[in-house]
Amino acid sequence: MPAVVDLEKCNGCKGIKEKGTSNCVEECPVECISLVEDDPSNAPHGREQHAVINAEECTDCEVCIDVCEQGALSMTE
């Protein structure tokens, strides 16, 4: 049951971290989260990046959920 990203809530930690990193990426103990670049002109919130979770590598530890200030991460059912 891996974590999933709500793309409407995820803002790629815009304004929180430098481009190319985020709270979830930094805190993931198995490094299964990466950031994908967006075109800010058509992305929600004018974001420049968003999180992507590799479901096969996710260990369901929920660390990313705890550190996501946007509440954009949750566990699948």
Oligomeric form: single chain
Helix-strand category: alpha+beta
Shape call: globular
Number of helices: 2
Helix content: 10-25%
List the helices and strands and how they pair.
Blueprint: E1 3-5, H1 23-27, E2 33-37, E3 49-53, H2 63-67, E4 73-75
Would you give an account of this structure?
- The chain has 2 helices and 4 strands; from the N terminus they run βαββαβ.
- The protein is an alpha+beta fold and 77 residues long.
- The chain has one domain: Alpha-Beta Plaits (2-Layer Sandwich).
List keywords for this structure.
single chain; 77 residues; alpha+beta; Alpha-Beta Plaits; two-stranded antiparallel ribbon; two-stranded antiparallel sheet; 2 helices; 13% helix; 21% strand
How would you sum up this structure in a few lines?
This protein is an alpha+beta fold and 77 residues long. Helix content is 13%, strand content 21%.
